[in-house]
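Researcher: For the annotation table, I need structure tokens for CPBP family intramembrane metalloprotease. Please keep the output clean. Sequence:
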Amino acid sequence: MFFVALTLLFGWCVASPLWLGKGLQEPNFTTIASLMMFTPSLAALVILLLEGRGRAFLRETGLWPINRPRRFLASLPLAIAVPVLLVAQAPVVGTWLGVFPGDLQNFALLHFVAGTKGPALYLIDQAVLIAVAGLANALLAIGEEVGWRGWLWPRLLRFGKSVAILVSGVVWGLWHAPLILLGYNYPLAPVWGVFAMCGVCVVLGAFLGWIRTFSDSVWPAALAHGVFNASVGLTSLFMTVGASIDSTEASIMGWSGWVAPAVVIGFVYFLTARRRRA
């Protein structure tokens, strides 16, 4: 698919200064990574321009208009809550599976960082910060979501939801390779990290694709993407003090974090299949 090839090419081109320079230590890393987030949108725009349909960019990618305002509004709280739940469940499942050094009885680290404020108030503050940061992050995440969920997702749905989830997730994960191979997100295993990134992108992408279809807009997907990026740091609150993790195994970024979401996705498919038969 031309869109996929173009997006991967643009991603590597934008990230090339990191490979030619100091990698993750490059002073302009944040700027380069932020610009890279807009390459999927650029690929979609280029294709529409080549087809002579540049004026259809907003409509074709779900940016505008808002066709289903009620569903759009209903999807916004889900875009905030579900990504946080995805992040929060991973340490619990990972601890149960023995790959995450969880302290789920004393929560010593949570009590330590909360200080005199107490865990309850601290978590409320964190929820507010995640919501605000998620809105800010959405301004960057929209650069990706216009391409992934705005352009690619609807075109893959003709082959079925399973194909759309798997293909869009794997492509999205591979698109991260220029950063992952430098040690981003998976410093202990960059090569395996590319495969792990594909996994987390499939899991998160399943929800982002659903909310894109439900709302008929790409904006809720961008918000959910932004909230996810803002909430990943919550994982540390569940850890034993002084412990470390292998992110290919633990947290939502590793395989143990995908177990519960996979069960939920499978259950939803089972119910959907039963309704169709009925």
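Researcher: And a one-line annotation?
Model: The chain has one domain: 67-277.
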